[in-house]
Design a protein that fits this description.
The protein is mostly helical. It contains six helices and three strands. The protein has a three-stranded antiparallel beta sheet. The radius of gyration is 28 Å and the shape is rod-shaped.
């Protein structure tokens, strides 16, 4: 729900950028009509007077919110992912992003750490047995390097497996 006329104008303008870009990211769309008779500007599509300051204020609001970005060409802007998500949400094209449905980055890191520890503990047992059998009591530098490499591989495999599992869980 919008709280000001600027936000409502910006929302209409954002939808116009979405329509004129045909829903494509980074597609430049002019704010005002160009010389070409077929080219419609976003301000006109949004029902704004292109000679007023309303389109300029609305596009500045959209820029500040990160919904559009300047493309470098004269008065052309491109819709961004957050802008596209907002338009789709307003039109009911997809479910609004819910924080309860998503797993936070902090929670993902915690799960990766816990799972990596558990997986490393499970994988370490056979590696330890292998080291005890294959590496002699009188150890040399080669034996130390072999043990370090095996332990490192176990830890790397544990972190990789834990990360893959958490990524699958987070995507659900």
């Amino acid at each position: 729900m919008t709280t000001s006329g600027i936000e409502e104008s910006a929302a209409r303008l954002l939808e116009a950028f979405y329509d004129l870009s045909r829903g494509r990211l980074k597609e430049p769309v002019r704010l005002r009509k160009s010389d070409s008779p077929r080219a419609e500007g976003a301000a006109q599509r949004a029902g704004m007077d292109p000679t007023s300051t309303e389109p300029d204020v609305a596009v500045r609001y959209l820029l500040n919110q990160g919904y559009v970005e300047a493309t470098g060409t004269n008065a052309a802007y491109a819709i961004t992912v957050p802008g596209m998500d907002l338009v789709r949400q307003r039109r009911g094209l997809e479910d609004p992003p819910s924080e309860r449905k998503k797993m936070s980055d902090k929670r993902q890191r915690q799960l990766v750490t816990a799972l990596a520890i558990i997986i490393a503990m499970v994988l370490t047992r056979p590696i330890t047995r292998f080291i005890d059998e294959e590496i002699p009591e009188r150890r040399g530098i080669k034996d130390d390097l072999l043990e370090a490499a095996l332990q490192g591989l176990v830890r790397a495999a544990a972190i990789f497996a834990a990360s893959a599992i958490v990524r699958k869980l987070a995507s659900r």
